[in-house]
Amino acid sequence: MFNPAATHTLAGLAGCRYEEGMGTPTHSISPPPSLRHVWRQDWPCYASLLAYIAFSAALVIGTGREFEPARYSVEYLTTLSTLLLVWLMMVACLRAIKRNPAHPLYEIPAAARSLLTPQLLVGLASLVIVPVFMNSFLAVKKMMPLWQGYVWDVRLADIDQWLHGGHDPWNLLIPWLSSKPVVFIIQICYESVWFLAASFSPVILAVSDMPGHIKRCFFYTYVLSWVVLGNVLAVLYMSAGPAFYGVFTSDTTRFAAIRPFLEQHNYGYQSAADLQRLLLAARAHGNDIGVGDISAFPSMHLSMAVLIVLLLIALSRRWLWPGVFFILVIQIGSVLLGWHYAIDGYVSIIGTILIWQGVSWAQKLSARRAAP
Question: Which of 109, 298, 323, 330 supports an S-S bond with 348, CB 3.0-4.6 Å?
Fold first, then answer.
């Protein structure tokens, strides 16, 4: 695992520098690296994203479909740009407070100018590439049901039941987590908090001065997780999930209680009940309303949650237990909200850790071979 001393990179945007031999970051203004140096360090991260975009384009066009990488990317780009602007404003304020605690407002213009570094300029490319990458993933996801039908739901549900002592995990959670406030909080964490974390983390990494090996480990794992877990395994074990069990199997009773339960806990915008109706409507309209097709196994919610936690642990082991709690909430949410069988999350957790470790090992091996 990477050296926890890399915690200095979290403070990089706030004007702190880690000094060798010291245990904590200290306030310091270091000359920024050149634009060429930043690009040479970061281009493999963007190359991995662009490689998948090219692969998706070839796959979609090769099947006679139209590839439109920017069709649904504008809204995503707007969201990421807004988040980045808010983030930079917060960082500028923190820098101003550090420089002049008594009169921070006087320091805000200088603090804002200090953010205009080569790292930020290169990192802005992520605002375009990440939305196109996700749009490319959705384009491939829409095609997956054409390659194999939803034939794994019964087997995955039975494996789930066997793993949990003869009970479906959803039925085990309901007695403990059925109150409206609890379900509301879980839905917010599963939908909104997860979306912000999973969407914004690549951008934050791109504009930060984090060491290149950590960036590359994150981005390589990010791309491989979407490809290996989100595409390959998803096609091989095509399933719809408990909320759609009655739609894609002949058994309309096993998980019949999920949809009414979610309707009772429908708090409005982007609730699980509304999103599941949207996915069914997308299928009825030929998947042409800006969402991917239905796919449960494995859970990319868990995969991205684990990846973010692995990154934070690589920076500081203090994130271990908060990270475990975050993963637990997402795992519970994936089952309680009817999106996934529990095994979908278990496989994603193990798979993402293995990919991260494999990428880390490959980087260390490459560094040893390149050493004189």
Answer: 298
Q: Above pLDDT 90, what percent of the chain?
A: 41
Residue 227 and residue 137: Cα distance in Å, rounded?
A: 8
Does residue 189 form part of some domain? yes
Of 322, 299, 300, nearest to 309 by C-alpha is: 322
24 CB neighbour count, 10 Å cutoff: 10
Cα(65)–Cα(225) distance, rounded to whole angstroms?
25
Provide DSSP, 137-157: HHHHHHHHHHHS-S--HHHHH
User: Cα 273 to the chain's mean position, in Å?
Assistant: 22
318-365 residue pLDDT tens? 999 999 999 999 999 999 999 999 999 999 999 999 999 999 999 888
Higher pLDDT, 68 or 99: 99
- In terms of residue numbers, what domain contains 292? 46-76+129-370
28 lies in a domain? no
Burial call 200-233: b when 16+ CB within 10 Å, e when fewer: bbbbbbbbbbbbbbbbbbbbbbbbbbbbbbbbeb
Q: Which of 240-249, 260-269, 288-297 has the lowest mean pLDDT?
A: 288-297
Structure token digits, residue 360: 């880390």
Q: Which helix (H) or strand (E) holds 17?
A: strand 16-18
Q: How many domains is the chain partitioned into structurally?
A: 1
Establish if 17 belongs to a structural domain: no
Alpha-carbon gap, residue 162 to 168, rounded angstroms: 8
31 confidence band (pLDDT: 50, 70, 90): low
Cα gap 300→230, rounded to integer Å = 6
Q: What does the alpha-carbon distance between residue 298 and residue 233 come to, in Å, rounded to a whole number?
A: 7
Tell me the mean pLDDT in the region 183-212.
89
HSE-up of 281 (CA within 13 Å, CB side)? 9
Global pTM reads 0.85
Strand, helix or coil for residue 25: strand
Per the prediction, the chain carries an average pLDDT of 84
Distance (Å, whole) CA 119 – CA 304? 24
